[in-house]
C-alpha cells in the first residue's frame, strides 16, 4: 500500500453539499531573485458530515476520485474559525 498525501489548509467555501474547497498555502523561493513567495492551491475535498465551515483549518488526505474534481477527503478539523 502506498502512502497517501496529506495537507493542511483553510476552508474557503462550503456552499456545496458534503464538499468543501480548501486553500493550501506554501512558500517557494523565486528561481532567479531568491525572494520568498506565497503560492496558494485550491483543493475540492469531501466532507461527509458537513462539519467544516469557512475559516476552519482542516487536514485533508488524498483518496480515490470521488467526482470530476474531488480527489481529497477531510480527515479532521484541526482548528475552528474564531466566532465574531
Task: Give structural attributes.
single chain; 84 residues; mainly beta; OB fold (Dihydrolipoamide Acetyltransferase, E2P); five-stranded mixed barrel; 5 strands; 0% helix; 55% strand; globular
Spatial strand arrangement across the major sheet: 1-2-3-5-4
Overall structural class, as computed from helix and strand content, comes to: mainly beta
Regarding quaternary structure, how should these chains be classified?
Answer: single chain
Shape: globular
- Overall strand count: 5
Summarize the amount of helix as a percent range. Answer: under 10%
In DSSP terms, counting alpha (H) and pi (I) runs of 4 or more, how many helices? 0
Strand content: over 45%
* Average pLDDT for all residues: 96
CATH architecture: Beta Barrel
Q: Runs with pLDDT <50, length 5+?
A: none
Q: Brief description of this entry?
A:
The chain is mainly beta and 84 residues long. The chain is built from no helices and five strands.
